[in-house]
Each structure stands twice: as structure tokens, then as C-alpha cells.
Amino acid sequence: MPGVRGGPGAAAGSSSAESRGEGCSKCRCKAKERPLSLDPHGHGTDGLPKVLRREEEWLSEGFSSYNGGGMNGTSTMMDFLEEPLPGVGTYEDFNTIDWVREKSRDRDRHREITSRSKESTWALIHSVSDAFSGWLLMLLIGLLAGSLAGLIDISAHWMTDLKEGVCLAGFWFNHEHCCWKSNTTFTDRDKCPEWKSWSQLILGHGEGAFAYILNYFMYVIWALLFSLLAVLLVKGFAPYACGSGIPEIKTILSGFIIRGYLGKWTLIIKTITLVLAVSSGLSLGKEGPLVHVACCCGNILCHLFTKYRKNEAKRREVLSAAAAAGVSVAFGAPIGGVLFSLEEVSYYFPLKTLWRSFFAALVAAFTLRSINPFGNSRLVLFYVEFHMPWHLLELVPFILLGIFGGLWGAFFIRSNIAWCRRRKTTKLGKYPVLEVFVVTAITAVLAFPNEYTRMSTSELISELFNDCGILDSSKLCEYVNDFNSTKGDDLPDRAAGPGVYTAMWKLALALIMKVFITIFTFGMKVPSGLFIPSMAVGAIAGRLLGVAVEQLAYYHHDWAIFSGWCSQGADCITPGLYAMVGAAACLGGVTRMTVSLVVIMFELTGGLEYIVPLMAAAMTSKWVADAIGREGIYDAHIRLNGYPFLEAKEEFSHKTLAMDVMRPRRNDPPLTVITQDSMTVEDVETIINDTTYSGYPVVVSRESQRLVGFVLRRDLIISIENARKKQDGIVSTSIIYFTDHSPPLPPSSPSMLKLRSILDLSPFTVTDQTPMEIVVDIFRKLGLRQCLVTHNGKLLGIITKKDVLKHIAQLANQDPDSILFN
């Protein structure tokens, strides 16, 4: 395989691409020697002395030695790539990696280490450390991801409360922590003297219309300040830090390279702006962006280990595990995180990655638990315990919630994609700061009057999941109490009091607001997750339905549907459970998750005995949403952005052949090829300059078109540039040959350049009559960049991953030119 001795692979998210000038482990050439036609983002200066030393070694070892000669042995030539060349075997930005080549390189590296381990004790230690490095990397990712998640949680909680007031005992305390040491009664625990609202601080009192207006004004001002700061930081320092990041991570894990997307600037800015965006009160969550943050940690820490720094396929195994750690700290759900990575984001997920993902998620969850960001000794803000089992007849309202979740998911995806497409194709996309300002202003103005939209979305979900107890002071729990019928902690179903009816109206208004404002919020140029807003919509709908069923059972307990299991004075219906099921249904409708969703939900809430209702709702919402539109929100955004992602779940059922898709088509110019031993350096450079292809087939001759192999454009450029500088006698008329032995040439010929080492001698080929469903399967399962098409052993054409995607789009009556990363 080519590139076995090649340099390190281009980072999926190397921070060098962010034009900050920091070094990276890619092609470390001297600035003045860097070829102009190469992507400048792939170069750094941090490893320069090492490269210089290596170049001196090449020179001292007889750089211009004779490896053969012309007719009379006077022409000098060499296999220039017998030693590793920096940059050879790497990839340019916005290109797809070659999974087959990367796995082959890793197998060769492993064989070499294993064979050397028998030679000496030091080699054996190196072999053991190499085997252990993967687990050490998982440990570091878990520790860093857990620490950052704890920092984000604590900061967001404090800044959210800062919009409403400040703690006199210490401004760094949030409202809850401020009142911990207060001597106030349980019912007045939110009114401790240490916590002052802005009107109390400025006016000296918190009552009256003017105090309300001042608090309203301060709330809106803080919200605008936080959101504007977030969008300005994203725009100025790390444009890739916006959005949730999951569509791009899915694309990167499928083998695409987006340099800078997982770099250190993106990590720093995303961490800061995520806190600001969540604190601003916008209808977004931090769970999706936490997956991006964890993957940034994984990518950056990969640079500490040569095995992962130099191999793109191995790096993607690490990123899959990092995604699991991200969900683990986002929801406090380690097992759900592993399943989420497997079901939703990963493209290649071997058994070894499953174990390492489990370990990374475990370490991340343990780290977050040690930090205890919520002060409740739990991993999540909304841990609940329900006391009553569910009844079989309750599956009917649970399935109704599933239908609602599917309808909401399909409606949200269509509306959000339409809005995002409008943003991309109109002037709206040129004013991201103004868009964030307007959406934040509308959100803050509408949110403040309603206590359920004013509080953070996580707190809202926590309150909706809550099972009302005797001491609950929430309006949702203002029932008409009959203490004579109370048994222990369990309260019977009771008549709703005026507080409950008020809360229902406010929740209905909050539901309408969340449904519509989330459409415009997701996709703005700030970090924005979708898990929490989707769960909030479902939790509100579920709580409303739960209270309705509860009151129905209370007033009509003699009806046939209730008589068998819900007698008067019994605790039959748990509205909090309906909220939990509704949250799962809406999240499933938007993301189309099933297994991982159910596991995340029961880990999130501790409701292990409610797996069946959760499964019923999740499955129903997926069926309903799939009936309206097949794509989940992340797949829809991948298609909107034109990322070259080949969906493994989709079936290809059309009867086309490889010859229908390959290039060149009829009436097209012939395929651009390089001959194995008859083209000069100038000929090859002309081909490179006149075309933009990422690689070229190598044939015996233009007449025979018999295939020899495939060579990458980037490898050719680097090899020719370095040969011109380092090898004596290489000029424009020098012959390039890819064979083992040099072709016979006249004595006066200039030196020849042997480039066999960069030639892929086993490119994947199919015949022109191969059905496209087989070709698509090959691309999916082997992760190919391109596939050559032959007829009776002769080269006919080439099919690239982009050709396959365009063909699928065309057959689905979509614009084939949309498959172009922009």
C-alpha cells in the first residue's frame, strides 16, 4: 500500500487551520520551501529542527547516489521516497481519507513494533506502551471532558441567575448556593436576605410596577449582552464554534477532513460561548455542543500519541469514544453515551472502540460527579424518583405523546431547514450578529412575564418531571389537600387547585413559544444544542396531558377505564412520568434516536421501571416522523450543508450500473492519466496545474490503458518539489517512472525520478457492468475515496465518493450539485 512510510495524516480538526499560526504535526516544511499549490493550513513551524536534521541526514547519506543509470550508467536517479517525506500520505482540507490505506498503514506499523519487541527489552517496553496508549488517551479525554462540563454547568447556572439578581454574600454564588446558609423557612427558601434582585439592589425595594419594569429591563439587557458577546467571539475567533457540531462530527467520523473544526481555538471559544449562549435564555441547550467540546479534547490529545497523530482512521476511533464521553457528561448517562455514539454519530465502530468508549464515558461521568456541579450529588439537574408503577391502560396516552413527538419532530425539521436554507441563500446570512440580537430580544421580552419561560430550560424540565410531594411549593403542586387521606410520602390523586390551573395556562403559552422560537434559534451563529429545547416541548405537552388524565381519573374514577385500577383516594396517575415520556417522544421525533434515547432517559431520571412507556413513545415518534420525512435533524443539516456523507442506513434500490455513474461520460474529454515510465516532470506538472483532481490513475501507456496503480495529487506535488530541491539533476525534462527498474534512455538524458513508493499498487477496481448497489455498498463498508472502472482489464473511468452522492441525489430528485461542501 502506498504511504505506509508516509508522514502523518492531516488532522480531522487540526487547530492550525484557524490561521492562528500555531504549529501542528503535519507537513513541517520550511516556509520558503513550501509549495505554493499546497494548502497552507497544513503546515506549521513547531517541528522545523527535526525536519532539518532529517534533511541533513538524507544529504549526508549520499542523496545523489546512483540507484541505477541510463544506457551507459551516467544518468543519476533514485527512489526519492525510500525515506519518509513530510506531508506524503496526508490529505488536503475538505478531502476524504482513504480508510483502506490508513488501516493498512496501521497494520504495518503494528507488525513492525511486534517483530521488534522480541529483539530487546527497550523494544518490548515500547510495544507495551504502544498497546497501553489508547487506554491512557481515553483516561485523559474523560478527565478533560468531565472537567470542562463541570465548569460549563457551574458557570451557566451562575450567569443565568445573574440576569435576575446578585448574591451579597459573594457575587460568585448563584441563587441556590447563596441561600444555603440562610435561616429562612422552607417555604421562603427562595427569598433569603443574602440574595437581592436588581430592583432591591438599585431601588431598595422589590415590590411595585417600577421594580417589575426595572427587573424586566435588566433581564433583557443581560440576555442581549451575553448573546452578543457569544456571537462576536464566534465570528471573530472561531467560526466553527457555532451550532451543535453533531452534523459536522458525523461527517468527520465518516472520513471527511475539516481542518480547524476540532482545534484548540474552537475548543476555547466554544466552551466560553456555550456558557454565554445558555445563560442568555435563548431556546437552546448545551448537550449537543458538549459532544463537540469532548471531540475537540479527543482530537487535541491525539497529538500526544504518534499512533493517533499520524493515522486518520485511528484518530476517528478516538473521536467516536470522545463523542460517547460528551453525551456521558451532558446527560450523566455513560451507557447512553456509548449507545449514542454507536447509533447516531459513528461511521466505523469496532469492538475495541466500544470498550474504550465505555471507559472514556465512565471516567468523564466520574470526573463530573466528583465536581458535583449541581450540589445534589447527582450527575444531572433533573434526577427524579417516581413512587407509583404505571398501568397498562396508560400506554394509550403514552402512545399519543409518541404521535405528538413525531409530528413535532417532522414539523420542526422542515421548518428549521427551510429557515436555514433561507439564511444561506439570502442577505440574512450576512448579518449573523443582527440575527442573534433580534432573536434574543424577542425571546427575552416574551420569556420574562412567564415564570416557566423565564427560568432556565433545564430547571423547567426538572420542575415538569417532579412528582409532587407534601412540601412542594411549586404552582404545579397546588392541589386541594386532604391530609386525612395521606399515607406516608404518597399523596392520593387530588383535585387541582387554582395554582395548578394557572400553571396549566402558563405552560400552554410556554409550549407555543418554545415550539416556534426554537425553529429560528437552532442554526444561528452561537453554540446551540437541540436536546434540551426538544425535551422541554415534550415535557410541557406531557405534563399538560398528565394533569388532564389525573383530573379525569379523580372526578370520574367510576368510569370503566379507571374502575379496575384507580379507586377513589388512590395515587394512580403520575403527571411527572407523562412529562418524561413526552420529553423522550419529542427528542426521538427530532433526532430519530431509539435505543440510545431510551437508555439516556432512564439514566437521566433514574426511572428504570418505566422503560416500556419510554420505548413505546420513542418507537411511535420515530414511525410517525419517518412517515412524514426520512431524515433526522442532523442528517438534514448534513444534506443542507452539502457534506459528502454516505448514509449507511439508507437502502439503494435502483438498477443502474457503474458505467452510468463513472467519469468521463460520453462526449467528455478522455480520462486524465499518467503513464508509468514515459512522462517528464513538466508533463506531470502540467497535468497537476490544468486539473483539480485529487489523484490520477497510472497506466502502462496511453495506447494500452492497462492499469498499474493510483497516485495522489498531494503526494506528487510534495515529491516533485522536494526532488527539485534535494536531488541533483532533476529538471523539467527528467523522466518520472513508477516501475521497479528504470526505462532505457540515451546517455545524455537528465536524471530520472523514481516515485514508485507513492504509487498505490492495489487500487480498488470494478467492471463497468457492476450494479451500483454493490458499488454503493463497497463505498460504505470500505470507506473508499474513489474506485476505478475497467473493461476487459483496460481502464475506462473513475467513480469518486462525490459521484456516488450526486447519483443518489439525482435519483431522489434532488439537486446533484448540492453535494459540494460550501
Automatic annotation (TrEMBL):
Residues 662-726, 752-818 form the CBS domain. Its main location: membrane. It is found in: Cell membrane; Endosome membrane; Golgi apparatus membrane; Membrane. It comes from the Eukaryota. Keywords: Antiport, ATP-binding, CBS domain, Cell membrane, Chloride, Endosome, Golgi apparatus, Ion transport, Membrane, Nucleotide-binding, Repeat, Transmembrane, Transmembrane helix, Transport, Ubl conjugation. GO terms for cellular component: endosome membrane; Golgi membrane; plasma membrane. The keyword Heme does not apply. It catalyses: 2 chloride(in) + H(+)(out) = 2 chloride(out) + H(+)(in). It is a multi-pass membrane protein. Residues 1-23 are annotated as: Disordered. Gene3D superfamilies: 3.10.580.20, 3.90.1280.20, Clc chloride channel (1.10.3080.10). The keyword Chaperone does not apply. Pfam families: CBS, Voltage_CLC. Coiled coil: none annotated. The chain crosses the membrane at residues 132-152, 216-241, 262-284, 290-306, 318-342, 392-411, 431-448, 503-524, 530-549. Residues 1-10 have a biased composition (Gly residues). GO terms for molecular function: antiporter activity; ATP binding; chloride channel activity. Proton-coupled chloride transporter. Functions as antiport system and exchanges chloride ions against protons. Important for normal acidification of the endosome lumen. May play an important role in renal tubular function. The CLC channel family contains both chloride channels and proton-coupled anion transporters that exchange chloride or another anion for protons. The absence of conserved gating glutamate residues is typical for family members that function as channels. PANTHER family: CHLORIDE CHANNEL PROTEIN (PTHR45711), H(+)_CL(-) EXCHANGE TRANSPORTER 5 (PTHR45711:SF7). Belongs to the chloride channel (TC 2.A.49) family. ClC-5/CLCN5 subfamily. Interacts with NEDD4 and NEDD4L. This is Chloride channel protein. It comes from Grus japonensis. The lineage of its organism: Eukaryota, Metazoa, Chordata, Craniata, Vertebrata.
